[in-house]
Write a structure and sequence with these properties.
about 170 residues; mainly alpha; Arc Repressor Mutant, subunit A
Length: about 170
């Protein structure tokens, strides 16, 4: 019978990844789960998240589920509040509320809206500019290239560049 390897798992395994996320979903935070002997270390989890996008996605969903779990804890605490424990309950509620907003800001975070307008509150005027790159110095061309690469989207198009060329 083969022996089970001793120590923490360091190589990525889908089975360990699923178990890790299950423990997070049930209300345990990342550091707590990582302290278990049969779970990867904190640094291994972060390396796995970088190397395995599917695990990163699973972790993100698990953290949202953790936030849901903690929202239920908020309700339980609020329901159990009495005159005798109102001050300590308030501290706990504030802590859980803050934590839930940080764990899952997309779901429980405060909505902040930023509006940009032109002069006098009017619309922003965009004026197209044509740059003759042949007239630029080499270092200026390189700087322009870096800026354009930063605006490149995943589909290969550029967010800030319109293509006005004809295909004829």
């Amino acid at each position: 019978m083969p022996r089970k390897p001793a120590g923490r798992p360091t190589k990525y395994s889908q089975d360990v990844a699923v178990e890790f996320c299950e423990r997070v979903i049930t209300g345990r935070d990342l550091k707590d789960v990582c302290s278990d002997d049969d779970m990867p270390s904190y640094s291994s989890v972060y390396r796995w998240r970088l190397a395995h996008p599917e695990f990163d996605f699973q972790c993100a969903r698990a953290r949202e589920a953790l936030a849901d779990h903690e929202m239920h804890e908020l309700k339980r605490l609020a329901d159990a509040c009495t005159e005798d424990n109102v001050n300590s309950t308030r501290v706990k509620l504030n802590h859980y509320q803050w934590r839930v907003m940080k764990i899952a800001p997309r779901i429980y975070g405060e909505v902040s809206r930023h509006e940009v307008s032109g002069p006098g509150g009017g619309p922003i005027e965009l004026k197209p500019v044509t740059i003759d790159v042949d007239q630029l110095a080499v270092e200026d061309r390189e700087a322009l290239k870096r800026v354009l690469l930063m605006t490149q989207q995943q589909d290969g198009t550029y967010a800030a560049v319109d293509d006005d060329t004809d295909d004829n």
